[in-house]
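Hi everyone,

Forwarding the result from last night's run.
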Amino acid sequence: MSLKLVTLSIATLSSAAFAETYDLSTVVNPENQNKIIAEMIDTFKKGVVDKSTPVTLSGNFEVNEKNRLTAINVEKVGFKVINVPLIGTYQTEASIKAVINDDNCKDIKITHTAVLKGAPSFVNPIFATDLKNNAAKAIEIFIKNSELSKNCAKESYTVIFN
């Protein structure tokens, strides 16, 4: 029984040791941020990014022992959108957490979404619903337009000639 406990402890410690956490600022620069937010807004058809207001981003990501992306924790992303239909301007801060279940970053499971603040405040419940419904697509866009894509396996094919 003691050997089983030791083996289990070693397995637990070694798997924890392989999970590395890094700051999102190491893979996303201001140009990436603007591109990410712009593509999200274009994809979801909800206005235009106000380029006069800086996009803010904080959070981290995890990779496994193969240096493959396993999780993203966007603690706070802030941006301002103009020309929103029926609203005009909306400025918000939100958070998203996701687990990546495969090496090629296609199986994204959202574990948390929240609107931290927004103005005008009556838009927050609408944005919260949109965020919840589109968070996986938003994370996919985020990965594609940042250096995080380097931590995803590329699809490859084997061609056999007879």
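DSSP finds three helices and six strands in the chain.

Cheers,
N.
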